[in-house]
Specification:
By secondary structure, this protein is of the alpha+beta class. It has two helices and seven strands; from the N terminus they run E-E-E-E-E-E-E-H-H. The longest helix has 18 residues.
Length: 143
């Protein structure tokens, strides 16, 4: 069995997930990054994207199968410690929390708004597009 690290995904309104993970992959501001147990301590910002973790499906069972948990996050922070990964974000949505049709419509509106900007002061529109894409990505990936 692989060495595990404790993962917590926390939003202002709820503890979205807490459990033991073999690996956590998150959308860092400078690129995706992975954290295993005994990782060097670090703190980084997150961009909108998908956080994935391979977790043991049954606690304490040495022969337990693993499963993947995924959340669309709208930016935030990730702290990595030797035995723990903490993700703080304003929004974290699991696959079943995403309204696919509404998100597709939102993505279309955001892309149209971005196209109207022509590169001038378009950070809010880019962020809206990235957040919609992250929510759609979490619904499309097999778990």
């Amino acid at each position: 069995m692989a060495t595990l690290t404790r993962l917590s995904v926390i939003t202002p309104g709820a503890l979205k997930f807490e459990g033991d993970a073999e690996i956590v992959v998150a959308p860092g501001a400078a690129g995706d990054l992975g954290a295993l147990a005994n990782h060097a301590p670090m703190l980084t910002t997150l961009r909108a994207g998908v956080v994935s973790a391979t977790v043991a499906s049954t606690a304490g069972d040495q022969n337990a199968a693993t499963q993947r948990v995924q959340f669309a996050v709208d930016g935030g922070f990730m702290q990595i410690l030797a035995d723990r990964v903490i993700i703080l974000t304003d929004s974290a949505l699991a696959r079943d929390e995403v309204d696919v049709e509404a998100t597709r419509a939102e993505l279309k509106r955001a892309e149209e708004a971005l196209a109207q900007k022509h590169g001038a002061d378009d950070a809010p529109q880019r962020r809206a597009v990235a957040w919609a894409q992250a929510r759609l990505a979490v619904t499309a990936r097999p778990v």
